[in-house]
Prior knowledge:
By secondary structure, the chain is α+β, with helices and mostly antiparallel strands. It has helices at 4-7, 35-43, 86-92, 130-136, 157-164; strands at residues 15-18, 32-33, 47-59, 62-72, 106-110, 125-129. The chain has a four-stranded mixed β-sheet. A two-stranded antiparallel sheet has the order 5-6.
Amino acid sequence: MYHPDLLRHPESCPSLVLNADYTPLSYYPLSLWPWQTAIKAVFLDRVDIVSSYEREVHSPNLDMKIPSVIALKKYIKPSEYPAFTRFNLFLRDKFECQYCGSPDNLTFDHVIPRRQQGRTTWENVTTACLPCNLKKGGRTPKEAHMQLANRPIKPTSWHLQEHGRGFPPNFLHDTWHDWLYWDIELES
């Protein structure tokens, strides 16, 4: 019987990594390890194999199915607050301009402009598309007669993970579905 996993190149067989409580380490980006890293972690006794692909790798002494889902043996406590990065800012704001809602040409904008002593903090930076950022210029939203959809806040890591669940990756292996909970319905 034909099975698509048998034809997969090992490079296209990543392992979904779950924490010791069987929740993904990260939804966005999805916590995936290359097959080599997963197998090394198995041999170092750092993970349990939860599920495997049909695809096997071979060595002179061993034939082994490539793990498709692994769980860490030791729980890793996520940090409470994420790093302030452009990606995390866009994720907090759901990849939308906070002035017009556009998902295109995103930049970040200082709500209180730097020239008015505005700081680069979670609470003062928001996602803006390039046209809105240019329109606002070095003014506050009120001075530019522009309305923010959401007041910028310092997100928790949980907050970003919840937002990340709204953006499933293009490929989800069947064995991953029991461990991932997305805000939209998945196709089989």
